[in-house]
Amino acid sequence: MLILGIVMKKILVIAGFFIALAACSDVEKVTLAGSEWKPVFQDIKDTGNAFVRFGDDGRVNGSSGCNLMQGGFTLTKDQITIGPLAMTRMACLDGLGIVQQRFVGALEKATKASLEGLTLSLYDGDGRKILELQKASSNE
Questions:
Q1: Closest residue by Cα to residue 61 from 42, 80, 86, 94
Q2: Boundaries of every domain in the chain
Q3: In Å, how far are 16, 21, 37, 106, 122 from 62, measured between CA atoms?
Q4: pTM higher than 0.85
Q5: What is the DSSP string of the chain?
Q6: 28-135 is classed in which CATH architecture?
Q7: Which residues in the chain come in under a pLDDT of 70?
Q8: Which of 10, 70, 78, 83 is geometrically suited to a Cys-Cys bond with 108, CB 3.0 to 4.6 A?
Q9: Contacts of 59 (CB under 8 A, 6+ apart)
């Protein structure tokens, strides 16, 4: 009986170690369902009404700043795939064409997502940050 108790304690200690190790994993699980984000570019101040909304149903929709867009997305832990995105085809004036090109291009190239506070960063397959987004407040 004493040996069984010692073995059980060791099993519990080992199980606790692995649970703690899993909790300390450096891979953060990102949750985007039901959230809306606005792109941030250091060199472009006016992004129009550009935003992307991640639905609970695996769909995205939003605006590129001058055109509406929609498509699908998958997210597993920090691995993300967005698109292909279907868009309306209005002419983009006053620099919004550049916003659209960079915003939509980055969304469709993203392979990794990282969430820190109210900032969502998207990375390409080479690990380069290609887009930073700020969470839209619920009263906008």
A1: 86
A2: 28-135
A3: 44, 38, 9, 14, 17
A4: no
A5: -HHHHHHHHHHHHHHHHHHHHHHT-S-PPP--TTEEEEEEBTTB---TT-EEEE-TTSEEEEE-SSSEEEEEEEEETTEEEE-PPEE--PPP-TTHHHHHHHHHHHHHH--EEEEETTEEEEE-TTS-EEEEEEEPPTT-
A6: Beta Barrel (2.40)
A7: 1-29, 138-140
A8: 83
A9: 70, 71, 72, 73
